[in-house]
Design a protein that fits this description.
Blueprint (H helix, E strand, L loop, with lengths): L2 H10 L8 H8 L3 E5 L4 E3 L8 E6 L2 E5 L7 E6 L4 E2 L1 H6 L6 E4 L3 E6 L1 H10 L3 H22 L5 H12 L13 E3 L3 H8 L3 H13 L3 E4 L2 E4 L2 H9 L15
Antiparallel strand pairs: 1-8, 2-7, 3-6, 3-8, 4-5, 4-7, 9-11, 10-11
Helix pairs in contact: 5-6, 6-7, 6-9, 7-8
């Protein structure tokens, strides 16, 4: 992928698409195009402050460790997603870790470039803050999903969130793929690993998903969202309550 193609994705999807054209140019003119192989950390929890990264190809796992447990995977990033602005605001160590789950191409806006943009236009801080608000909305939605009592619906809600199709389908074309194993997905949705496997196999048999090694492809996001709107308990959850 070359810079023009990367820039087109960045201004079409996610945080940067919500900002004025003049700000987009200021950001993209200062971005570096970087490639990361599968399993490569972009940065880790506790690393020194750095710049922002916007994903234009591939997928990223976001890990957290805010309390006694962790680090563990809490979210996934797909093209259009930017991360890393908190360090620019606070000049404190990184609060999350970011790792490429497949070969990925990222736009890197260095910390010095952020400061340069803000020196030229102090109001630009508000536009950088829109990225933080986007992350806050995701965190609020995740907390809301984790309060769903029915564990099958809770699992489905988490699956949709990390597939970037919780409320609607992504604008980008192509399959909705998530690079994750059953154990991480079980932790994220607060169910037992065996329960996660049972739910995944049922959803696959119903045509909602396709399963492969460390990867889930969501085939029918509309159908999964309808499950969450259904007031009745899902059939598979009647016999699995004790396993959750």
């Amino acid at each position: 992928m070359d810079k023009p193609a990367a820039f087109e994705i960045a201004v079409r999807e996610g945080w940067l698409s919500q900002t004025p054209a003049s700000f987009q140019r200021a950001v993209l003119d200062r971005c570096l195009l970087e490639r990361f192989e599968t399993g490569t950390p972009i940065y880790s929890i506790g690393d020194e402050p750095g710049g922002m990264y916007g994903i234009v190809s591939g997928s990223l796992a976001i890990s957290v460790a805010p309390r006694e447990m962790g680090p563990y995977t809490a979210h996934f990033a797909t093209p259009g997603f930017w991360v890393g602005e908190a360090a620019a605001f606070t000049r404190q160590p990184r609060r999350v870790g970011v790792t490429a789950t497949r070969d990925s191409v990222l736009l890197h806006l260095p910390l010095r470039a952020i400061h340069e943009i803000v020196r030229q236009d102090p109001s630009a801080w508000r536009l950088f803050g829109l990225s933080t608000i986007e992350h806050l909305d995701s965190a609020i939605g995740a907390a809301d999903d984790l309060m769903i009592r029915d564990h099958v619906k809770r699992f489905v809600a988490v699956l949709l969130r990390i597939g970037d199709c919780r409320l609607e389908n992504p604008r980008r074309r192509g399959p909705i793929e998530i690079d994750i194993n059953h154990e991480d997905l079980a932790n994220m949705s607060n169910v037992a690993r065996t329960t996660a496997g049972t739910i995944l196999r049922k959803l696959e048999s119903e045509g909602h998903l396709a399963l492969s090694y460390r990867r889930i492809t969501i085939l029918a996001p509309d159908g999964l969202r309808r499950m969450l709107r259904d007031r009745d308990v899902l059939p598979s959850s009647r016999n699995q309550g004790a396993a959750a």
